[in-house]
Design brief:
This protein is mostly helical. It is built from 15 helices and no strands.
Length: 419
């Protein structure tokens, strides 16, 4: 009982100084333990961050971060080893612990705590520097699951759209082939980023979603595309028949041109009837090919042939219209050439007034082409004299003069607008 009262327990009483040193050493041990725990926790957390970065990023900066973390790990092992050694070297619970031993324990444990704290500070600083790399990696990881799911849903939507098209009696072999080619990509997506890497998986998911969406959109447009091809077949067939009728009217127009006007007015139109007939014949052949392609559901071929038909009919329309337009214009100028002359002179005078606006003398760059235009018009008018004037030459000359004058007017306005 006396021993218990003297020592406050089973420990033997050695004096106040020893107990004070023991308490200080224990406090140092507790502080070192807390520092060790904080450093260990920070290292574990940072290791997760490093693993997050390396799962996504293979850049030089990421590789450098891994190297720096490994070096910090070596340092952490060293200071942790020193701490553990300091703890193992001293039994602070010994009854006969001497004050000098407790003092050395306190010093060693304090030193270990300080090293742990400094290392923790450097580790925290390193962790703060990882912010941009970690943020980028976490963003990509956050995108991973939604991107993969979006790819799966896009493939499902494309499959459903393709099934609907086939049930409607339309073939879509090319679309089916494109969709089938995405099967291996889906397998790789299902294998996961752990096997193929996060950046590669993200890229694959986005590509699969994009390609599947393209297939879905084209499949959904297919019925409309078929209907449009059907409409174009009917429309172009009707237009070809109408042009056949119009082409038959070119020869009477040419006969009138030959009878009433000089050869220079109509020679370039001599080949129109033959050209129109050949174009219509080719158009009908291409229409038949387009119909066959449509029946076989070769949609690109059908579309291409219909485009050829349209181009042939456009060319035919232009050439057939040119003959009738030529006769109309020649009739008008033969009846009253003065109207064409006045129209052209007005254009020249208007340009001359613009060239002189705000000036005492015109700019030679403007005056010269306008003076040349006056002379050119005068020569064209003189060409109308005689028994069989070349009215077509006259019309093309006056048109050329107005084009020249128009360019001068545009040049003046641009220069003054810029000024």
């Amino acid at each position: 009982m006396s021993t218990a009262f003297a020592g406050g327990g089973t420990r033997k009483w050695f004096g106040g100084r020893a107990e004070s040193q023991r308490a200080e050493a224990q406090a140092a041990k507790d502080a070192a333990a807390a520092a060790f725990y904080e450093l260990d926790t920070a290292q574990r957390d940072l290791r997760i961050s490093i693993e997050t970065i390396t799962a996504v990023d293979d850049s030089p900066a990421a590789r450098r971060a891994v190297t720096d973390f490994q070096q910090l790990g070596t340092r952490i092992d060293e200071v942790s080893g020193q701490y553990i050694t300091a703890v193992d070297d001293y039994d602070l619970d010994r009854d006969d612990l001497e004050a000098s031993v407790a003092s050395r324990a306190r010093a060693d444990l304090t030193q270990a705590k300080d090293q742990l704290t400094r290392t923790k500070h450097d580790l925290d600083k390193f962790a703060r520097g990882l912010g941009p790399l970690l943020g980028k990696a976490e963003t990509q990881l956050a995108r991973l699951a939604p991107s993969v799911e979006r790819a799966r849903q896009s493939l499902l939507a494309a499959t459903n759209a393709l099934d609907a098209v086939r049930q409607a009696g339309l073939k879509a072999d090319d679309l089916a082939g494109r969709l089938a080619s995405l099967g291996p990509e889906l397998t790789r997506l299902n294998q996961g980023a752990g096997q193929h890497g996060v950046p590669e998986t993200l890229e694959r998911a986005e590509r699969v979603a994009r390609d599947a969406e393209s297939v879905r959109a084209e499949a959904e447009r297919l019925p409309e595309r078929a209907a449009e091809i059907d409409r174009r077949l009917v429309s172009l067939r009707t237009r070809a028949q109408a042009l056949t009728t119009r082409a038959g009217q070119v020869e009477p127009v040419l006969s009138e041109l030959r009878r009433r006007f000089a050869a220079a007015c109509w020679q370039d139109l001599q080949g129109v009837p033959e050209l129109a007939a050949e174009n219509v014949r080719q158009a009908e052949t291409k229409l038949a090919e387009a119909r066959t392609a449509r029946d076989e559901q070769r949609w690109p071929d059908a579309t291409a042939r219909l485009s050829t038909v349209r181009a042939l009919l456009n060319a035919t329309d232009e050439s057939v219209s040119a003959a009738a337009d030529r006769l109309h214009r020649l009739n008008a100028v033969a009846k009253d050439p003065q109207q064409e002359i006045d129209r052209t002179r007005f254009a020249i005078r208007d340009a001359q007034r613009l060239a002189m606006a705000g000036r005492s003398t015109p700019d030679p760059r403007h005056a010269r082409p306008l003076d040349d235009s006056v002379a050119r018009l005068d020569r064209a008018v003189e060409g109308l004299e005689g028994r069989h004037p070349d009215y077509w030459h006259f019309l093309t000359e006056t048109e050329a003069v107005r084009q020249t004058v128009g360019r001068v007017v545009t040049q003046i306005r641009e220069e003054r607008g810029g000024a």
